[in-house]
Every structure is written in C-alpha cells, then in structure tokens.
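Changelog note: in this version the structure field was regenerated for every chain. One regenerated record is shown below for reference.
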Amino acid sequence: MTTTVSTAGGPVNVGALGRTLMHEHIFVTSPEVQQNWPDYPESWDEEAQIDEAVRRLSALKSRGFDTLVDLTVIGLGRYVPRVVEVAKRSDVNILVATGAYVLSELPVYFHYRGPGTPAGGPDRLAEFFVRDITEGVTGTGVRASMLKCVTDEAGLTRDVDRVLRSVAFAHRQTGAPITTHTHSGLRRGLDQQKVFAEEGVDLGRVVIGHSGDTDDYDYLQTMADAGSYLGMDRFGLDTVSFEKRVEIVATMCDRGYSSKMVLSHDTSCFSDMSDPVRRAELYPRWKWTHIADDVVPALRERGVSQEQIDEMLIENPKRILSHSGGY
C-alpha cells in the first residue's frame, strides 16, 4: 500500500494530508481564447491570479484545511507549471489530476484518431494519462494523483465512452483513483459504474462526483452500495439550495453512509467558464472556505457528529488516495 501521494509541491505522506477538499480547481481557463483575444472580458493577469490563489489558499489553511485536489484536466485549461508556482508559495498541499473534460466530443486531435476512428491507431488518451501518473506532467516532474472523466446530459456518446474506458485502463495500470463529473438528475453515475465495471475497475476506487445535486436517495444508495464514494462537492453553488445540500448529506449520514462521502465545492480561484463578476454576485458563498465556515456548523446542527465529519473530510480522502498500484 502506497504511503505517499504526489503533490504539486512534492510527495506527501498520505497520513499527513489532513482535512481535504476532494473536488476543486485552481484555474479554469480557455487558452485558445486567451491567446487569440487577450483582451477578452474575463481579462487574465498571470501574476495577479497567482497572487490571488495564494491568498485564498492561505484563508483555507487558516480554517484548518491542509489539502486541495485540483481536478482541472484537458478541456478545462490545465497548465500544471502555473499550479506549481502557486504551490511554492502555499502551505496547502495541491494534488493534480489527469483525464479529460469531455461533454460530448473529444478535442479534434483525439476525435479523429485512435480506436474506433477513421484514422485508427493507438489510444493516445490512455498513453498520456498513464504517463502523467507514472512519469509526471511534462516539464514539471509532478505526477498526477487522480483520474478525471465526465458524463453529462449527452450521456455515453462515442467519445465520452472512449474517455471513460481510457481512464479505466489508466486506473488499472497505475491504481490512481478515479473521480468524475456527472449529471445527477439523469443518474449518469450509474452509466459510469456500468462502464467501469465492464473494464474491471474496483468501484470502491471511484468517486462519483456531483452526487449532492440530487435527493434521489435510491440512486445515491445504489451507487454507494456498489462500492463507490459519493462526491458531495458543490457546496456554495446554489443551483441546489444550501439547506437542501446540507439535508442530503445529513440524511445519508443518518442512513449510515458517512464512510462513503467526501465534501467539496467544485469552485476555483479563477474561471472563465462563466462571467466571474456575475458568478460572484449569484453565488457569494461559492468559495473554498464555505465548508469550514458554514457547512460544518450546519451539519452539526442537523445531528451529524464530529466523527462523521472527520470521516468525510479526513479519513475517506486518505482511503481513496491510498492504493497498492495497478491490478
């Protein structure tokens, strides 16, 4: 069983990760837009954004959190050298991921080559994912610690299915845990579990993301009973109200599932996925300190014990990130 995990600042003992946010982002960017229209309204300033990320991580650390998992992958503007610069100036451990954020079709580079495409050829996706985990992200020496994939409204399109199976292959080769983005209202987590099971994945090494977007308890319990962890990871995004998100976690704890949940926000320091100013106005609590400041006290008021909270924030992340390699 591995005793260390790779971070943007170097290897860290898994037992020393402490309170961990399992589904976050540092920077979500659109490089092609930035490069071609640098005066775009979201206005990227490299140094200012690095400074702001360090400031926000310092605030997170002051609330007793020690680790943040950055799930920014291809499709979301992943640029690990920038994250390394942030890590050098922060006391928070930052874990990086590999994988692909694909809602329907892969980027052109992958869409027209590889298994099942007219051009054919090897699965470069799986090759790149494995390399990121075993050798490190090019130019940084930082090894990815998690695999990320997506199944949203479009469902299992050809390319989405391909990404899931490439992620499953990389997982089987390396043992790196899988975490996902889902559309919970359409029960997409079950689609993911089906594909992973077909590829021989131990579902106990998978986090089904955005599970807290629904109070369909049959759906949630079915996934947890199959072994997977549930990502209750959009606190602060009030497309589902704060009260409802707290209620869902508290109910699942009442039903004995605290050992199968992790908590997070799925927010970022900077994102041009939507207008940053409008987003801040709509969701003022969607920030890295929300769980510490608001969610934990609300869960305690709902009868969730400190032991259960520590399980979701400390013990479950530690179990997910501890593994014995490929299988």
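Spot check on this record: The chain has one domain: 4-321. The chain has twelve helices and twelve strands.
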